[in-house]
Amino acid sequence: MMDIRMRKAKELLAGSDMLIRDVSGAVGYTNVNSFVRIFKKSTGFTPGEYREREQASLREADGANETDEVDGAE
Question: Most exposed among 13, 50, 66, 73, judged by the fewest C-beta atoms under 10 Å?
Answer without folding.
Answer: 73
